[in-house]
């Protein structure tokens, strides 16, 4: 019997309508458009309204991904949402989306690996699809990170935005498309460099993001580059083979640093950091979607995705689209 692959058969995305520019942020914290652009590449971010929840953004991205795949919600037997900003402590945002889509079979659950959540979710879902545990799955990265920012802390509030991206992963035989390899890692020793200072079991509040950005930066470039090399090697390929690099959109300087280290040309790097900022688990599927929609990423292209985030967690996923 031929091998089953987990193929990306649909993509979708959703950004809140409300855009917040650097100039707006400069009006309430001591920063400037020049500083933010020079240090991060970020020019603006989308911010959810009070009544716009992570599940709403995720649902809209999921519906578009289903349309794009030519499927209806009932064709799906698994929904996995990568998020650090769920609607509620429970139930999982995935089950809320499952209910709104009218899917009353199969399973739905959330994955929490902060900015690496989508890469983690891709690995888990790929394994379920290739073993036949799921035939067609929705993988969603959705965040309302604006809810856990300290809007008086200029070192973090400038960096993040809200949004969602989704992919349909379908099991297919006799194809060279699909996820070719994936790699995930974590290292809990670095909690103090990047964490949220609250939670249900500690403070009973959601808390706020705290980060020692310049130290996180150093780990990010090194670990991401290594993850991508390993991921390519596991597929019997090298970085020189990839057509597109779709990184987590944390900071343009990290994207450039990784690209330089691995000799990836600037034209191959998909960057949405200027418009979306860091949307945590939504950033990779949002960037992937952007490059599919504008015609850069085409069927058959070899695409390397990666992410790095709180935990630390990090990883990469190599896919033939
Ligand atoms: N405006 C103006 N000045 C600022 C701002 C701001 N918004 N923020 C910090 N500064 C100041 C600092 O106070 C510091 O001042 P000092 O020299 O007087 O002490 C100076 O700018 C330099 O600060 P650094 O932190 O060294 O600046 P850096 O160039 O490292 O940029 C940044 C900071 C953008 C946070 C960067 O370090 C970064 O992007 N780090 C990685 C972030 C990341 O990848 N996170 C992982 C994913 S996120 C997640 O998982 C939730």
Q: What's the helix and strand layout?
A:
Layout: E1 4-14, E2 19-21, H1 22-26, H2 33-40, E3 44-46, H3 54-69, E4 78-82, H4 93-101, E5 107-111, H5 117-130, E6 136-144, H6 154-157, E7 162-173, E8 178-186, E9 194-196, E10 209-211, H7 213-234, E11 244-247, H8 252-261, H9 273-276, H10 283-293, E12 302-309, E13 313-320
Parallel strand pairs: 4-5, 4-6, 11-12
Antiparallel strand pairs: 1-7, 2-3, 6-7, 8-13, 9-10, 12-13
Bound molecules: acetyl coenzyme *A (ACO).
Acetyl coenzyme *A (ACO) is lined by residues 31, 35, 39-40, 114-115, 154-155, 158, 194, 213-214, 216-217, 220, 250-251, 254, 278, 280, 308-310.
Question: Which ligands appear in the coordinates?
Answer: acetyl coenzyme *A
What low-confidence regions span 5 or more consecutive residues with pLDDT below 50? none
| CATH homologous superfamily assignment of the largest domain | Thiolase/Chalcone synthase
**Beta strand %:** 25-35%
User: How many H/I helical runs?
Assistant: 10
Gyration radius, in Å: 18 Å
The overall pLDDT average reads: 97
Shape: globular
Topology order in helix (H) and strand (E) letters: EEHHEHEHEHEHEEEEHEHHHEE
Major sheet: size, sense and barrel closure? 5 strands, mixed
| DSSP strand tally | 13
Q: What is the share of helical residues?
A: 25-40%
CATH class category name of the largest domain: Alpha Beta
Derived from helix and strand composition plus strand pairing, the structural class reads alpha/beta
Examine the secondary-structure arrangement and name the CATH architecture of the largest domain.
3-Layer(aba) Sandwich
């Amino acid at each position: 019997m031929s091998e089953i692959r987990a193929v990306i058969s649909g993509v979708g995305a959703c950004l809140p309508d409300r855009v917040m520019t650097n100039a707006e942020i400069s009006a309430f914290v001591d920063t400037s458009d020049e500083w933010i652009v020079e240090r991060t590449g970020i020019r603006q971010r989308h911010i959810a309204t009070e009544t716009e929840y992570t599940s709403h953004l995720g649902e809209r991205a999921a519906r578009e991904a289903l349309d794009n795949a030519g499927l209806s919600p009932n064709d799906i037997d698994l929904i996995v949402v990568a998020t650090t900003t769920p609607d509620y402590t429970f139930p999982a945002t995935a089950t809320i989306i499952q209910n709104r889509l009218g899917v009353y079979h199969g399973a739905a659950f959330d994955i929490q690996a902060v900015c690496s959540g989508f890469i983690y979710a891709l690995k888990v879902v790929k394994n379920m699809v290739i073993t036949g545990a799921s035939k067609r799955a929705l993988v969603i990265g959705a965040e309302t990170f604006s809810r856990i920012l300290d809007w008086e802390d200029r070192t973090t509030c400038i960096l993040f935005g809200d949004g969602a991206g989704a992919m349909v992963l379908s099991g297919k035989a006799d194809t060279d498309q699909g996820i070719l390899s994936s790699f995930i890692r974590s290292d809990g020793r670095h909690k103090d460099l990047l964490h949220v200072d609250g939670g249900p079991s500690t403070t009973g509040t959601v808390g706020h993001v705290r980060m020692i950005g310049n130290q996180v930066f150093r780990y990010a470039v090194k670990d991401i580059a290594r993850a991508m090399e390993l991921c390519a090697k596991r597929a019997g390929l090298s970085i020189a083979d990839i057509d597109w690099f779709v990184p987590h959109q944390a900071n343009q300087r990290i994207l450039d640093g990784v690209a330089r280290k691995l000799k990836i040309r600037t034209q191959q790097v998909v960057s949405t950091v200027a418009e979306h900022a860091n949307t945590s688990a939504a950033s990779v599927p949002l960037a992937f979607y952007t490059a599919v929609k504008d015609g850069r990423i085409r069927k058959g292209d070899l695409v390397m995705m990666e992410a790095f985030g709180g935990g630390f967690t990090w990883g990469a996923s190599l896919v033939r689209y």
